[in-house]
Amino acid sequence: MNENDIIERRACISGVGQSDIGRRLFRDPLELTLDGCLAAIEHAGLTTADIDGVSTYPGPMGTPAGFSGAGAYDVMDALRLNCGWYGSGLETSGQLGSVVNACLAVASGLATHVLCFRSVYEGSAQGEKGGRAAVMPGGGGGSFKASGFMEWHLPFSAPSAAIWIAMFAQRHFHRYGTTREQLAWIALNARRNAALNPNAIYRDPMSMDDYLAARMISSPFCLYDCDVPCDGATAVIVSRRDRAKDLRNPVLRVEAVGTRIDGRPSWDQFDDLSTMANRGAGKQLWERTEYKPADVQMAQLYDGFSFITMSWLEALGLCGIGESGPFIEGGTRIARDGQLPVNTHGGQLSAGRLHGYGFMHEGATQMWGQAGDRQIPTPPEVGIVAAGGGNTCGCFLLVRE
Amino acid sequence: MPEVQETAPPFRILPKLTDWNRDFWTGGARDELRFWRCQDCKFYIHPPQPLCPTCLSKNMKTEAVSGRATVATFSVNHQPWMPGPELPFIVAIVEIVEQPSVRLTTNIVNCAPDDARIDMPVRVVFEHHPDPDGDIYIPLFTPVAGTGE
């Protein structure tokens, strides 16, 4: 592939920001969104006048409750932005597909600095109803009738991605002998890292005994394998790399992205249920760069459910196919001071379900050496950020210049 | 013996019937599990769509299959997401024997949670839900070998 064809390389991550984050803040979701956006713009060394693009996931959505705190238009209007390009959408390569789109927009010259954001208030919106987290659109009962893809899940009392992802995990367990004691290390590593992150939701120590004693949700997942709904907004600025002189932080080059899905875009019709759509995205990413998995010094890998992180480790070639269980066992390799630090902020399991963007925020923060108490001892020069599970996945290889 | 369970079923959110899905959701009235099938290349198509994904033919009709399937994976669900079957219950993805690429998310019934296994052979049973918009027969699956029956 010709280097000129890898146009995402013309883009860089130039700033990140977050609003207040909490289990239940009961704050106006647009206010949280704007707080996160303004923090990121300021962090990049820019002003609202410099922003000429907006990208978000998923755009305005009423259900599930709290799933979308604001759409692109909300932010464009509130900040009076003039945009050469903007967009949102659910059907893209994971939550960070919106950041991929921003990279393509700046690479094509449609925009120079794109404000990307993800805003959630699931903690507040779902808490009063008894914590019905992660129930996808269409739940209800009574005279309500299921249609669309939920037609094939709701009549079987399977409304949650917890169940759907658990079935991928069970297939992996069956095929490769993976165990709950291995899976646990995703949650235990996340909690260990969250202790050093003042913005994390759950920071109390967790032991293997705590994990194994937790109530089951959907086998093989217990409570601690499921991320925690929260309120908060995360924003990321994507800039043209040739405008680095205008920017405050060292350039984080978007070396390559992965967006491919091979196989049916479905939760239950996907051909090999021990893998996910991320296998295509991971493969594509390495086809677009000379770097190799052994060069990766940090991996921020989506953990909406713990198993998804294991799936990403395999899909990205950071361990062998089927070998993620032994790879994470004991939690040494993936520790903050291990050979491949993973989810150094605590992931969504302990730092809150900021839904994909938290991993980009953490990856960039670590690579800039701005992570405070939880900083990886040597700030990584080459890092992976990946988000999404099941039929929706996208990934980034970032290089600090 | 008809394969329709006539005991009071648990609460279920029922599907909205359309011309595309009616045979699937009502076939249980005749003890039939029905899928769309391309009449040109004989490919079974699920979920329903307006043409065959293999040969792009629109020459399709629904046909009954044997109702035999294999468990591709499962999860024992303990969480009360919404009203439904007694907890814990088994959610599974099964593959029909005629064409394993046709999968159904479903429940395994008449099976103790500890007895559920990947690759377990199962057969369809229908759960009848009377409804003013048209009775629904939800296809659930039960172990063939009689585990827990």
Detailed description of the structure:
The complex is a heterodimer of chains A (401) and B (149). Chain A is α/β, with parallel strands linked by helices and 401 residues long. Chain A is built from 12 helices and 11 strands. Chain A has helices at 29-43, 72-78, 97-107, 122-127, 161-176, 180-194, 208-213, 278-287, 306-315, 324-328, 347-351, 357-367, and strands spanning 11-18, 53-56, 85-88, 113-121, 216-218, 221-222, 231-240, 252-258, 299-301, 382-387, 394-400. In chain A, strands 3-2-4-7-1-8-11-10-9 form a 9-stranded mixed beta sheet, sandwiched between helices. A two-stranded antiparallel sheet of chain A has the order 5-6. Chain A is globular. The two termini of chain A are 22 Å apart. The model of chain A is unreliable at 130-141 (pLDDT under 50). By secondary structure, chain B is mainly β. Chain B contains 1 helix and 9 strands, in the order E-H-E-E-E-E-E-E-E-E. Chain B has one helix at residues 22-26; strands at residues 4-5, 33-38, 44-45, 60-65, 68-77, 89-96, 103-108, 121-129, 136-143. In chain B, the strands form 2 sheets. In chain B, strands 1, 5, 6, 7, 8 and 9 form a 6-stranded mixed beta sheet that branches. Chain B has a 3-stranded antiparallel beta sheet with strand order 3-2-4. In chain B, strand 6 (89-96) and strand 7 form a beta hairpin. Chain B is globular, with a radius of gyration of 16 Å. Chains A and B meet through helix 5 and strand 5 of A and strand 5, strand 6, strand 7 and strand 9 of B.
